[in-house]
Structure to design on (405 residues):
């Protein structure tokens, strides 16, 4: 990662060490946003181009069931960006049409969704949302030589083909960067980890964190796992961390389990610093969770709706007005992705009448050459490997808001 500052070398080593990582699923049953039914019908940005043609962008994510908070954010932000671009005159005069599909966090359904979009005439894909689904779909997109841009698929294999790029950071990069940040900022003296060994997102981050923690001289006094079959009672893991004297607990897990851990830690009068990665984003929205328990929690996430820059505030306002809720990082990554496609199409002068393969070749050539100003990074660019170049962002929760560190 070119702009990962001191993390560059350790992230590169992590990529080599964890080339087989395969998935990052969502968690938590979420009620679909008001726009879900409309989105599921495939309604999106519409309009006629100057020449009568449109760029057709597909979007896939879990819009119902587990992971709906992630998938809805992706497909809705894709729609929002497309509508904004159309309102501003399109891409070189051509409009964008978006059709979305619900994969329900299921690999097979995601492949079916891809085929449905292909039948519709999809020319490029923003998605899928999660790593397992992205990996499954990437095989199909590679066979068709169709350009795939996943906003949030973090596993290394999501971008194993040359037609696949991502907007988010990879799992290994997050683990290594977390250890470096902890060391540089003296966040603790003794460290504990609680992670999900049944989930490749969580275990992948833990593995690279553990390796880099040793390089940084961090003392890990407790590392305890749980699985999807035992993800409600964390008293044993917390007690071991407390007994070992850990004053920082690293949680490379999703926010639903994290909310339980924070509650159970408070119940046992254990108050270390808690630190999470992008899966922690959303903890303030958990139903019936006492958000005061998240005070002081630190997380590495590329986006905060509380940021005061004009671009973020405009996005948050437009998203809230259209969908009735506050966007998360998954939405911000998708929004950046659509604008990156616009920049790449313009850079190569691509047109809707070109074949899917020719459009893909143009986008593959353009992405390593473009730089955009995005919600998730002041300057966002890409390597030919499909990995983004952008600075990591660290936030702490203070008074119910994300405050940049």
């Amino acid at each position: 990662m070119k702009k990962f500052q001191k993390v560059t070398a350790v992230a590169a080593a992590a990529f080599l060490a964890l080339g087989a990582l395969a998935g990052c699923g969502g968690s938590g049953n979420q009620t679909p946003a008001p726009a879900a039914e409309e989105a599921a019908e495939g309604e999106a940005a519409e309009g006629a181009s100057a020449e009568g043609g449109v760029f057709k962008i597909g979007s896939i994510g879990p819009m119902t069931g587990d992971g709906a908070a992630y998938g809805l954010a992706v497909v809705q932000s894709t729609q929002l960006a497309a509508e904004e671009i159309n309102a501003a005159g399109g891409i070189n005069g051509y409009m964008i049409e978006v059709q979305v599909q619900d994969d329900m966090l299921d690999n097979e359904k995601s492949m079916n969704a891809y085929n449905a979009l292909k039948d519709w005439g999809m020319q490029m894909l923003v998605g899928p949302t999660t790593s397992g689904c992205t990996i499954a779909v990437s095989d199909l997109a590679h066979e068709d030589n169709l350009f795939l841009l996943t906003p949030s698929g973090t596993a290394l294999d999501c971008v194993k083909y040359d037609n696949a790029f991502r907007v988010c950071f990879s799992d290994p990069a997050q683990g290594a960067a977390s250890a470096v940040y902890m060391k540089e900022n003296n966040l603790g003296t003794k460290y504990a980890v609680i992670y999900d060994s049944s989930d490749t997102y969580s275990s992948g981050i833990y593995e690279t964190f553990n390796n880099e923690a040793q390089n940084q001289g961090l003392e890990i006094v407790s590392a305890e796992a749980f699985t999807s079959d035992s993800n409600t009672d964390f008293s044993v893991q917390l007690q071991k961390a407390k007994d070992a004297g850990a004053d920082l607990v690293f949680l490379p897990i999703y926010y639903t389990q994290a909310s339980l851990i924070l509650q159970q830690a408070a119940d046992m009068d254990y108050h270390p610093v808690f630190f999470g990665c992008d899966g922690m984003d959303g903890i303030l929205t958990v139903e019936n969770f006492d958000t005061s328990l998240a005070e002081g929690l630190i997380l590495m996430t590329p986006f905060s709706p509380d940021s005061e820059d004009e671009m973020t505030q405009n996005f948050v306002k437009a998203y809230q007005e259209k969908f009735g809720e506050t966007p998360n990082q998954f939405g911000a990554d998708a929004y950046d992705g659509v604008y990156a496609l616009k920049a790449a199409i313009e850079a190569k002068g691509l047109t809707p009448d070109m074949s899917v393969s020719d459009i893909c070749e143009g986008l593959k050539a353009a992405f390593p050459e473009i730089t955009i100003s995005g919600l998730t990074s002041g300057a966002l660019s890409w390597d030919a490997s499909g990995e983004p170049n952008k600075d990591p962002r660290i936030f702490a929760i203070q008074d119910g808001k994300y405050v940049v560190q």
About this structure: The radius of gyration is 20 Å.
